Model the fold of this input.
Amino acid sequence: MNPSRFRTDDYMQALQGLMPSGQAWAKSQNAVQSAVLRALARSYRQSDADALALLRGAFPGTVDAFLPEWEATLNLPDPCVYNEDQTTEARQRAVVAKLTSTGALSRRYYTDVARALGFIVSITEYRPFRAGMSGAGQPLNHGDWRFTWCVTVISPPVTPENYDAYQQMVCTLTSESPSETLLIFSH
Done:
């Protein structure tokens, strides 16, 4: 049960304070009127607790009841994440991370994403060969190459032990890259 800001007795006391005074309005704890007021006080306490839970559920870092709605909105769990624990706290962190992820179009952003996933990479952006701009010995790439990047894993080397992490990095970089970009991975 979620905690309320006030106890049932606090609501009971407030309700009794609103009742008219006089002999017809018994204040005894055993009176029917007190039993009705106590039932109302429990209801108000529960409403207060539910309202607080609703407020907590509106914020991604403390969400519990609405966690599935946040996940559906943000396309979580991330299809790129393999073998991760799915505790409530981990799911909340994933929601916050997805909401605060800014994204970018720079190579640095993507190398930082790879680093956060445990890999140091370099990214080569290809461009088509242009007379006057390109020199002798440079690749003769046609126009489609301007949208191609080669992501080279520098360290750690890709091994069977870290292949799942490598696949997660490939999936994450591919899903976060601009839609017109083709990524080629080298290790």
